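Tip: read the tokens left to right.
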């Protein structure tokens, strides 16, 4: 190998000056001895970026990865920022929890030391806990902020650092950039304290596990209904998998408190195991992730499967049908089911529909929006991520609305306002309670879903992704969608001229044989109804070219030039969004069609299949670009 440059050698030396962890010091030292420039560049050159999702990366040495040094730097920066921004921050303290992943306990201890050394109270969970319990504690204790050390359902070699603001919701701008600036300061780049024992021997530190556990479980009784067994006295029989995560103990406590029949465990997956030995990906959404649970359910004769992801903030379910097949509910289907249950329960508590607020993300089903319209409920769509939904619900609460329900299609649900984040534990208890009640009345969950379709319309979706590890190719694909191809005819595009920066946007007029009726591009900041262009008399540059007008074209959601996100609606009732992932090398798409009352479900599914093919072949050009 070529000799190391002075610059990368200096970065490595700086790392070794900071690092006190034997394993990661050894990794950098050995790469130095080998003159392995390529590996050192990947690990050291570009520091891990703090954003609205906090930190998440592979656990290795280097400024670009999750390790003790980067966790200490993040904690020091967060403490500095919170002290400046949040009133009485030190007295109110910070809540710190962690899951069972490799190094999570160590990262929690070092984070606690960073705050304690600055005079903050630290409310901590010594043992691993589900993410919702940490989120609950931030709001319950009125802390200045919260930290959860977890990588959720990422592969076993990853870890993360999730931050909650003083309102109990995840951080949003401008706090993310403010925290990032504090982390990057010279003062906070140098680890000031490296002491894993400090939290155990400090008057400012308090293990809140027992107190918060009890209060969290008590809070779930707010949604308890009388679901005693039917005349047959047969309790609901169901199987639960924790996906090798930390959910089992808290789920057990909630099920007992709600007076529900206890689950049959998937024994091979019920206890925490950071290696996730029985699943390729510890995510209930992934194909095959519920195979072991299905095997157990069939062995014991259970007709229902429920699951959490490893940190128990997500929830999934499947139900055996009369023909013996298993119906796995999509995230959107569960969202519609939960939304209906919550609306019913809040009405029964005497809360008028027009005082209830519900939200979901822009890539989630429009069925919740239709439900809200029919029932007279306050509704809003948000950008993807629970940070946006929770903060929007807090905004509605401040306006006098009752926080009702929020969800995202990636199996995340917020049932109670005591946890301003997705909460797979409460969702599980609530689901089992309602499944028990439906069984008492001779119905299945799937039959209940079909009744919702009959009432609000048949909404069918297809969400998937293309793997693309080349950022340049990703940019090229979105550029063609946004600006057209050089050989395309102008008549094939909806053309928008933006005079301010002399840009001509050229979006497709037809996708999959269906006319495009609405476009929202949150990367460049454009949104419009196609049919309204001429009626608004915006055209000024000749046939089929419309001049950009800020007032008319400005999107109703926040734009970001740092990521790609485009939404199309077509004249067959479809809406689909293409976006890049912030944490994975993927181009994701979210497609849904809302059927008209006179349409058969098969017709709707046929149109969906046409658009799935069109997204692949016409929009992304997967074969041409070599994407899976």
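Filled-in amino acids:
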């Amino acid at each position: 190998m070529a000799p190391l440059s002075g610059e990368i050698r200096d970065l490595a030396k700086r790392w070794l000056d900071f690092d006190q962890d034997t394993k990661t010091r050894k990794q950098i030292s050995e790469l130095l001895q080998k003159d392995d420039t390529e590996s050192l560049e990947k690990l050291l050159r570009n520091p891990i970026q703090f954003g609205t999702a906090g930190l998440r990366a592979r656990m290795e040495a280097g400024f670009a990865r999750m390790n003790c040094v980067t966790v200490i730097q993040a904690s020091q920066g967060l403490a500095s920022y919170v002290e400046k921004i949040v009133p009485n921050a030190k007295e109110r303290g910070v809540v710190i929890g962690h899951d069972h992943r490799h190094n999570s306990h160590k990262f929690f201890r070092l984070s606690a030391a960073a705050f304690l050394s600055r005079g903050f109270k630290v409310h901590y969970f010594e043992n691993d806990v589900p993410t919702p319990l940490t989120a609950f504690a931030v709001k319950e204790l009125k802390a200045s902020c919260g930290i959860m050390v977890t990588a959720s359902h990422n592969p076993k070699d990853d870890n993360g650092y999730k931050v909650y603001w003083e309102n109990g919701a995840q951080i949003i701008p401008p706090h993310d950039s403010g925290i990032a600036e504090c982390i990057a300061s010279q003062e906070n780049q140098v680890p000031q304290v490296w002491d894993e024992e400090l939290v155990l021997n400090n008057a400012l530190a308090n293990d809140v596990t027992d107190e918060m556990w009890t209060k969290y479980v008590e809070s779930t009784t707010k949604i308890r209904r009388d679901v005693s067994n039917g005349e047959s006295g047969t309790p609901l029989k169901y199987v639960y998998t924790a996906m090798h995560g930390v959910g089992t103990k808290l789920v057990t406590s909630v099920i007992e408190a709600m007076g529900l029949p206890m689950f049959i465990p998937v024994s091979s997956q019920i206890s925490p195991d950071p290696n996730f030995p029985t699943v390729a990906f510890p995510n209930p959404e992934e194909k095959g992730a519920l195979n072991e649970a299905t095997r157990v359910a069939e062995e014991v004769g259970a007709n229902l499967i429920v699951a959490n992801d490893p940190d128990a903030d997500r929830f999934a379910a499947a139900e055996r049908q009369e023909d013996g097949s298993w119906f796995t509910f999509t995230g959107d289907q569960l969202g519609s089911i939960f939304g209906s249950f919550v609306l019913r329960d809040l009405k029964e508590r005497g809360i008028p529909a027009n005082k209830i607020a519900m939200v979901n993300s822009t890539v989630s089903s429009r069925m919740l929006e239709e439900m809200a319209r029919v029932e007279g409920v306050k509704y809003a769509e948000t950008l993807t991520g629970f940070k946006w939904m929770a903060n929007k619900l807090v905004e509605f609460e401040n306006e006098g609305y009752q926080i009702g329900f929020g969800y995202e299609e990636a199996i995340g649900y917020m049932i109670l306002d005591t946890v301003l984040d997705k909460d797979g534990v409460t969702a599980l208890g609530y689901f089992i309670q309602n499944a028990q009640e439906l069984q008492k009345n001779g119905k299945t969950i799937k039959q209940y879903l079909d009744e919702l379709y009959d009432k609000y319309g048949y909404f069918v979706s297809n969400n998937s992704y293309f793997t693309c590890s080349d950022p340049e190719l990703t940019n090229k694909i979105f550029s063609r969608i946004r600006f057209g191809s050089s050989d395309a005819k102008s008549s094939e595009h909806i053309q928008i001229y933006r005079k301010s920066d002399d840009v001509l946007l050229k979006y497709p007029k037809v996708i999959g044989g269906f006319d495009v009726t609405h476009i929202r591009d949150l990367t460049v900041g454009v949104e419009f109804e196609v049919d309204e262009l001429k009626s608004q008399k915006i055209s000024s540059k000749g046939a089929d070219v419309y001049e950009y007008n800020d007032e008319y074209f400005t999107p109703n959601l926040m734009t970001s030039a740092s990521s790609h996100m485009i939404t199309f609606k077509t004249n067959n009732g479809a809406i689909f969004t293409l976006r890049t992932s912030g944490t994975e090398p993927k181009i994701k798409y979210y497609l849904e069609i809302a059927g008209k009352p006179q349409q058969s479900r098969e017709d709707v599914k046929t149109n969906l299949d046409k658009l799935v093919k069109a997204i692949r072949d016409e929009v992304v050009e997967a074969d041409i670009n070599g994407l899976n």
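The longest strand covers residues 459-467. The mean pLDDT is 92.
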